[in-house]
Amino acid sequence: MSHHVRTSIRNISIILCLIPTAANAVAARLVGATDSVTVAPVVVSPFIVIGFVGGFVKHDAMVHSAVQVAAHLRQAYPSGVYAEALENHQREKAYLEIVRLLDTNRDGTLSTEEKRSARIILYGHSWGASEVVTLARELGREGIPVLLTIQVDSVAKPGENDKVIPRNVAEAANFYQLNGLLHGQTQIRAADRARTRIIGNFLLDYKANPIHCQEYPWYDRIFMKAHIQIECDPKVWTQVESLIDSRLPPQH
Q: Are 228 and 220 in contact (CB under 8 A)?
């Protein structure tokens, strides 16, 4: 065998030996590249608690219990819970805010999973309680569940039904009184008893146990006496807060 032939064979052998080493190096680089990829964290929507005030009350009027509840929740739950009080004509604003909070990937559309992960609590007084049920019904049409609704002396707005709780609501509670010209819905019921638990319809009697709401306007205290008393009754709103707290995550 000639010298040139032997040299060629040796060179080919060296090249063949190097091929697995090169392949392994490429594979190692690929593994390293894969390992360095950062997986985006899963964003979970917060618990959403929205309260509606009654009548023509402003959303930031701190004398009113519905506003105080939202303020207490913001203080008690600095993260993981969205709590806000709104005027009862701001239902559309509340709906849009809920959609924004649920849209965790910010693509402008709620996926089935984003809807399913919703954790929403709604409460309100008077016309605000009527808006609670109407908003829950609106959310139900979009397939968005509601954990809990709470009505306090609910007065139905024209064209609204504050008596029948829609089937997308898991639990509902109703507090009412029967004194005076203006009083609340006495009996709420579930549209679907297999899907909604009515916690109770709780009657308050302010003839026997009057509440003095000195910080409220004089005309409210005269013309809507009992309707205002339930709105400023600390026993009622302590129960409202307790119902809400029991559905929220524990704070560490």
A: yes
